[in-house]
Write a structure and sequence with these properties.
Strand order of the largest sheet of chain A: 1-2
Shape of chain A: flat
Largest sheet of chain A: 2 strands, antiparallel
CATH architecture of chain B: Alpha-Beta Complex
Helix content of chain A: 25-40%
Number of domains of chain B: 1
CATH topology of chain B: Amidase signature (AS) enzymes
Order of helices and strands of chain B: HEEHEEEHEHEEHHEHEHHHHEHHHEEH
Number of strands of chain B: 13
Number of helices of chain A: 3
Shape of chain B: globular
Strand content of chain A: under 5%
Oligomer: heterodimer
Number of helices of chain B: 15
CATH superfamily of chain B: Amidase signature (AS) domain
């Protein structure tokens, strides 16, 4: 599992980050070191082991589908980019 | 009466400002804090880690990307503290979003908090400001902090105070600016164990707004602190050898020998999987979750914005994120995105989650045999800021070897200050089974009563 300049650029694109040339040069050896350390897990046999996405057992919680008081719209819209009671974002199409 | 109160509050805020000039413990100090309710926390001043929302007060999780974000609501713990009469004094320094163990990963707009015993050294992290302030404050103060992989125990250790991380699910995360949802826990730092018990009673409890909040009976922690059960203690064998400062191990052993002399059962236990695979499992899960959590910072609903006119959607996101995320945040986003990516997900993310299952089982098995598991909290004494800056990211992550275990397993754990080496604090880490915070507090009291040499 090799991480190289192209892979970092691809991952940065997915994560919506522009990395400078200097940042890529700095990150590449550091990330290589970390990822090769992560490979230690290969030594562990996890056959038939279920993954834990929490540490404490949890039950699914449902709530009644009822209208209740919430934050006021004008309170929540505490940004500069807003229009007609909505958040204003850049054009999609 | 009212006037006297106001004078006292002003005095406290003045002291905070004075401390802050020298040590940088606050990201924000509240100018005229108000007492709202009345109850258990009357007369208690509470500092809050920057990543916990306080209504109307800049809550930036130490990041420039949400530097001036003012939450429109209080976190669950803040609601409770205000109801009980606690006075919120400000937001404490932390590594950006909790990304660090030394609190040196701070955004350009914030400062590195300095160790209360030696200003050339770190406070530990990520809740560094909380640790330093708890040590320095002369007024009655309790800190609200947060841990993902050791961010309470670590600075509590380096600053010489108690630091409690409760069981996952005991304290609601509603209003926490999250790092990794399956790992984040809001906790407490204080100078006295009685104050930890007092605050836990206030903030523990079920909250329907946090879907991972657990319904358990909350005991009267202050009352059970007075009981003296004969707890059985297990010292982690792997924490006494390679990679841990011998002098620190010596301090821990001495204390444990004293307990033995007093008739407590103390024996060595082993956690081989946790010590071999804990760091890798923890970092893969934490970074994977962090990289998705940070997706919401895109310049639209919170924090930094720019003009959206004539810009493409993705270019706008990239512009904001690249400009305002710090270096460690970017590293962790890249790593966490990679470990979740098609083709790598099974080898990293899923494998780490399976490893977590085995680690939880390993702890549970040890708890069949002992009540409290102990080890040093940190493998080293508080390092110099300059030394930390030379470490590679992996070397940084390895410093969490003693704290990631209980965090991965969601187990309550407490840093207990147990002495000094070269005028720097040494901490003992005590861990109990899920929701056995009471036993943990009792153990701290036993340590204080049975093993502590007279102060000074």
């Amino acid at each position: 599992m090799e991480i190289n300049e192209d892979v970092i650029k691809h991952v940065a694109e997915i994560a919506r980050l522009n990395l400078s040339k200097e940042e890529i040069e700095e990150f590449l050896p550091e990330l290589k070191e970390v990822l090769s350390y992560f490979e230690i897990l290969k030594k562990l046999n996890t056959e038939k082991v279920k993954p834990s996405f929490q540490a404490v057992e949890l039950k699914n919680v449902m709530r009644e589908d009822k209208v209740r008081e919430s934050l006021r719209q004008e309170e929540v819209l505490n940004v500069k980019n807003k229009k007609d009671g909505y958040f204003l974002g850049p054009k999609v199409v | 009466m009212f006037k006297m109160m106001k004078q006292e509050i002003n005095k406290v805020i003045e002291e905070c400002k004075e401390i802050n000039k020298e040590f940088n413990y606050f990201n924000y100090i509240i100018e005229n804090p108000k007492k709202e309710g009345k109850g258990k926390l009357d007369g208690v001043y509470v500092s809050v880690k920057d990543n916990i929302c306080v209504k109307g007060v800049p809550s930036s999780a130490g990041s420039e990307i949400i530097k001036d974000y003012k939450p429109v609501f209080d976190a669950y713990v803040i609601e409770k503290i205000k109801q009980e009469g606690g006075i919120i004094i400000g937001k404490t320094a932390q590594d950006e979003f909790g990304f660090g163990g030394f609190n040196v990963n701070v955004a350009k707009c914030f400062k590195i908090p300095l160790n209360p015993f030696d200003k050339t050294r770190v406070c530990g992290g990520s809740s560094g400001g909380a640790g330093g302030l708890t040590q320095k404050a002369s007024f009655r103060h309790i800190a609200i902090a947060e841990s993902t992989g050791g961010s309470i125990a670590n600075p509590a250790c380096f600053c010489g105070v108690y630091g409690l991380t409760p069981s996952y699910g005991l304290v609601s995360r509603y209003g926490l600016i999250d790092y990794a949802n399956s790992l984040d826990k809001i906790g407490i730092m204080a100078k006295e164990i009685e104050e930890v018990a007092l605050m836990l009673k206030v903030i523990a409890g079920y909250d329907k707004r946090d879907s991972t909040s657990v319904k358990v009976r909350i005991p009267d922690y202050e009352k059970i602190l007075k009981e003296k059960p004969k707890v059985k203690i297990g010292i982690i064998k792997e924490s006494l050898g390679k990679g841990v400062d011998k002098k620190i191990v010596e301090v821990i052993r001495k204390r444990m020998n004293k307990l033995k002399e007093k008739g407590f059962m103390v024996k060595e236990i082993s956690l081989p999987l946790t010590f071999k695979y804990g760091i890798a499992s923890y970092y893969i899960l934490a970074l994977s979750e962090a990289s998705t959590n940070l997706a919401k910072y895109c310049g639209l609903r919170y924090g930094m914005e720019s003009s959206v006119e004539g810009k493409n959607f993705n270019d706008y996101f990239k512009e904001i994120r690249s400009k305002y995320f710090g270096k460690e945040a970017k590293r962790r986003i890249i790593l966490g995105t990679f470990t979740r990516m098609a083709g790598y997900r099974d080898a990293f993310y899923i494998k780490a989650a399976k490893t977590r299952t085995l680690i939880i089982k390993e702890y549970k098995k040890v708890f069949d045999d002992v009540d409290v598991i102990v080890s040093p909290t940190m493998p080293i004494l508080a390092p110099k800021i300059e030394e930390v800056k030379k470490l590679t990211p992996l070397q940084n992550y390895m410093m969490d070897q003693l704290t990631v275990g209980p965090n991965l397993a969601g187990l309550p754990h407490l840093n207990i200050p147990v002495g000094f080496i070269n005028s720097l604090p040494v901490g003992l880490l005590a861990i109990t089974n899920h929701f056995e915070e009471g036993k943990l507090l009792q153990f701290a009291k036993i340590m204080e009563n049975e093993t502590e040499e007279k102060k000074n």
